[in-house]
Sequence to fold (404 residues):
Amino acid sequence: MPPARSPYRPRKTPRQQRAWQTRRRIEQAAARVFARHGYASGTTDRIAEEAGLSIGSLYQYFPNKDAILVVLAQAHLEQTAETVRAVLAEPRPLRLWLPELTRALVRVHAEDPRLHQVLFEQAPRPPDVLVRFHQAEGEAVAAVERLLRADPDLAPRDHGRQARFVVATMESLVHRFAGDEPGLDAAALEREIITIVTRYVA
Amino acid sequence: MPPARSPYRPRKTPRQQRAWQTRRRIEQAAARVFARHGYASGTTDRIAEEAGLSIGSLYQYFPNKDAILVVLAQAHLEQTAETVRAVLAEPRPLRLWLPELTRALVRVHAEDPRLHQVLFEQAPRPPDVLVRFHQAEGEAVAAVERLLRADPDLAPRDHGRQARFVVATMESLVHRFAGDEPGLDAAALEREIITIVTRYVA
DNA sequence: CTAGAATACGAGAGATTCCTCAGCTTTTGC
DNA sequence: GCAAAAGCTGAGGAATCTCTCGTATTCTAG
Fold:
């Protein structure tokens, strides 16, 4: 949920069932339109049309185009952060949590790579999103650092820096190969990421 | 240099000194404007103004906005490809070429990370650029694969796949940390990349 | 059933952007 | 010194796009 005070805050909270559905329809339509047309050509008119609504209705729920984008981005961040939190909650050895985390990340990003790219690369990233993004990443780094430090099989090193690079490497490679790279399925991608990270910290 | 037939091909080849300078002024102004304002707000009017020219002059040299962007992108690709080619030309052991390549990549990308981001993430990448990009990357992968295969210190593995991930990892991490990450200077970035790649292929 | 609240509609105002073109200035070749 | 070629200018046409607002429709409480 976006912060209370922000030019990207959704406009009003629906009172009727119908309105909730409408808002949801707009969000889903926006996801499809952005994925298909990119940010610049993902016009509000197109989104409204895709949602089967008039442009006026769209602007009842969102004060501007970017507000829709922010909702989509925040949703993705929230989902990812939740996943990471769950996998890294308990101290466990690397060989248990790393494959699990890798698989989860690959899965989350394979879902709609084109939309993901629009949200986090192509489109302008408003402060709201940037802040949440860094926060989520910081959380992940901290959790990884804790697990590295608690693992008796690993040599004591600069776990803080290692954690940063572990997260960065995983995130980068997942983004890089998300969607369909020719000759590289999800399983192979996971295997390779696991290998790289394991050897790095071992 | 962009392909001969393309809606992004520069419009005419200058005949006079003055014209060459003008074209150069436009390109440099565009680089600054794109870096400062991003793709969407990097308008042709702004570029012309930054170059100290009228908008009409700009359109004497470039048929449209994206053509300017293509020239900038191709220049970067050419420069990078040339560097990679030089460093990976001769078969040498990993511990020699890897640090050199890493340093070169970090240096190239530290130059103007904001512009780089606009060119290769934010802006639409026209086919001209995409093709050249994949070609350059393919070259790099092939060269790395050759060196890995020729290195007697390395265990025989799937060098093709390894090469792909080596290039992807280096590229991703350089992009990720290009510019000024707080608490991470260029030397530290290089060291960490070298560590990750070395352990991966060793 | 009815009145008022909530929701939906969509033409078009206002703003921006890319790019053209007719005319002007500078350079070049002789 | 002059004519032709090359280069430069900038007002504004044409095409979008975002977002508003007056009106119409649907829902809900009593």
